[in-house]
Hints:
Blueprint: H1 2-5, H2 12-23, H3 35-48, H4 55-80, H5 85-96, H6 99-105, H7 112-127, H8 132-148, H9 156-178
Amino acid sequence: VTLLLRAQEQTGDSLAYATAVRDHAGLWHPHHVLFGPLMAAVGQLLQAAHVQVEIVTVGQIVNTSCATSIIYVFFRNLTACGLRKYIVAPLAAMLAISHSFWAYATQFEVYLVPSLLATMLCFGAMRQRATRAFAVRTALLVASAILFHQVSALLLVPLIGVAVVERAKTSLRISITTV
């Protein structure tokens, strides 16, 4: 699927990011602090394993791995939430054959890593109760997503809303039980 749906050419931003990583100039971009270092690290790991690839290919490997993981997390967590596989499988298949999804996955772009983290966060929140461990995992996922792309800070909006509602429900329960 990836070969059929991959981007035929890189965008201007993709080429600028790839050049920054390749040349180690501007590796720490202020809008996506960890993206460049991750790509550089994966590129160095591949070189250490004697695999010679261009930096754009490194980005495509990382992003397609994230895209594949997103599809898996999507499928796994929807079935874990009680949806039947015959309902979830076509939904996951639609995502898997989406041209736009794979176009981003095969660009040297910053969006797939934080998208994977956001997918893990959303589906994790659907399945878990609010515990201290859940709060720590949530904080780590959100912080990581923000460091991979600053727009991920928008994930905080629904999280704060849920926290406020949960707090209000807890306060209401405490008030009712004391009366």
